[in-house]
Amino acid sequence: MKKQVKGNLNDLRQGAHNTWEELETSALTVRIGTPTCGRAAGSLDTLQTFRERIAKEGAEAHLIEVGCMGLCFAEPLVMINNPESGLPPILYGPITYEHVQRLVEGFVLGDDPCLELALGTVEFKEDGTPYIPEMPRFEIEERLILRNCGYIDPLNIEHYLARGGYLTLQQVLQTEPEKVVSEVEQARLRGRGGAGFPTATKWKLCRQMEKEPKYIICNADEGDPGAFMDRVVLESDPHSVIEGMVIAAHAIGASRGFVYTRAEYPLVMERLKVALAQAREIGVLGDAILGSGFNFDIELVGGAGAFACGEETAMIASIEGQRGMPRPRPPYPAVYGLFGEPTVVDNVKTFALVQRILEQGGEWFSRIGTPNSTGTAVFALAGRVEQIGLVEVPMGTTLREVIYDVGGGIPEGRQFKAVQIGGPAGGCLSESSLDLPVDYDSLKEAGAIMGSGGMVVLDESNCMVETARFFVDFLARECCGKCTMGRLGVKQMLLILADFVKGEGDEEDLDLLEKLAEDIGQGCLCHLGGSAANPVLTTLRYFRDEYEAHVKEKRCPALVCKELITYYVVPEKCERACDHCVLTCPTEAIVTDERTRLKKVLQDKCVKCGTCLDVCPPEYSAVIKVSPPEKVKELEEAAGG
Amino acid sequence: MEELQELLKTYPANRHSLLRILQAAQRQMGYLPGEALREVASYVGVSPAEVYGVATFYNQFRFIPYGTHHTVVCLGTACHAMGGQLILDAFERELDIKAGEITPDHEWSLDRVGCIGCCTKAPVVVMNDAINAKMTPFKVEEVLAGLGLQLKRSTDSEGEEAGEREPQ
Predict the structure, then answer these.
(1) In terms of domains, do A253 and A346 share one?
(2) Handedness of CA A321, A322, A326, A330 (dihedral sign)
(3) What are the pLDDT digits (tens) for A354-389?
(4) Residue A146 lies inside a defined structural domain of this protein
């Protein structure tokens, strides 16, 4: 009986492998990325149009829905492999439904590769097309967690099997659990949830507990605004996480697992449900896994929209049906966790890496990255950067490489100002930190944290005081309310910052804010609260001049804070006959002088939405923002009324 | 409430199921009226105050119904950096309600969310479950007018012409 099941999986994998090889070498394939962000860009329309066109033309092409390819700036992304053309697979983007006809006629039915729509080739070099592996992005990137993302169909377990899926699990089940833990220990893997706690230490502690049952929780409650790595991994390659979880369960002797994910991620829930059912079907999950005596199953738990539940003890409370409030540690969940039993809580990416470590060996993994932060880190690069997307780089890569070489720098010739790392509880680092290697310890020293990996780039058009206010506002809203420092301290920081952005604070408030932030850093119950001070402390440390401009001069240097700016139409630049600003103003706050046709902003009606600035044709660029607001009077007087 | 009774029977009557029951009840009804909370409390065997305490802790639960058109404005870090607050302002201005409210005719409801993880398309808005990417205050008006809202400012033919120009 035992051998039969195992044999089946090998047969299944061999079959899947053969189909995959055939698909890769001789079939015409069209891969379309349909993760949540691809969908936001219209990839479902692209997919549907391809489907209709291909059916109509009777073309023999395989449409494969894949996950995130990482190059989110060019979504919707399409990759076509036409072996008959003799050309390598070509990546296209952005491809909306309007381009589909051209691609079908050109490269699906014919041999015209439509290079005008291409981003580049992915295999060997062809003249004229950028060769993607040579783009600086791919020289720096090293994809361990994301290796299947955007390449395989996440809903097709055969694709995962064809790429060696569940082979590691088969081998692991033959080895002693201690051996698995020691492999992870040798890899010096640190938890990818943000705090960077050594994974093997946690596992050992849980393994040594004599209590049964034991539980495993996969933390997929990616609540940090600006982060979407876990979503992408689960949407694009769910089986790698499931395999990692089963391996971990074997290592610590757990019988039940949970994936706790966000209510805001419906596609993750949908795809995980399918993947879990498939895993049970082929016998890698459930009773007597692969014919061994090992039983383990995974349950999917949908969060209900509470940021605090990303903290492990709060998550446990939430799975138990309670309010998601953290409790003091120790005891750590590995000792006293879900329903009071020993529990290991790890991040999505940690489990994906566990699979890689057991596949390639801990020694191999420990050679990637830096000695204290081994392996790779995945970052969600967003904000004011040219090539936004998902990036996986070895630990120790500098921020400059990530932002400029991988991200392509700041768009529209603007100046870099700051990079916000580690979610709302992380920190804002300035230009002086750009050569900092990205690893747990360097970031901590600079005042930020690795966090879960959100990296939002800010440029000169972002105000740092307002940015700090935003994070503190978020944390104040999401604070669970249990400890005084979290509940009232964070709220007080918010009130002070809210004054600053209105130009109402004074210098004493600046000192008070700094003192308060330091106290909160020490006095909070959980690390979410404790790190709530980071956005304030780092912006004060690196951008004190901006605070001082707000407080002393009532001026917002970045021209962002609404109460401190006014819009003004420069008479010398205004074209006069053009009425774009007048017609689009939502509050009819721009009027035309009947005699001169010049436009004037009625300040009492203006809501400072910025539409006039957006619609003013670039050849005139007549609408400007000025700060402090009184400056507009000077300008009007200088212009003669 | 009969439907809720049916639904409750499919869940074990214990404290641990509370969150799932509330989620299922909201899926069924669209929101959680007071009566439903009391029903759930008596089924699970805890006080209504405790159920209310759990329900109000989580952002997902609503205590007012959705409008015919429901809008959620994302205010995550990336959306904020790209002007998300201006988008929320535009919705609040045009709909004449604040985030978390519904218009008196129950046509429009508005919410804010911490982050939906679509940071590369910032600022984003989820309207009737579809994601609208790279929003501007001007696009907000276009989308609302497209769904039949009478905009605050008069839109004559000239206005539509100007509207054809995509804001930068």
Answers:
(1) yes
(2) negative
(3) 999 999 999 999 999 999 999 999 999 988 999 888
(4) no
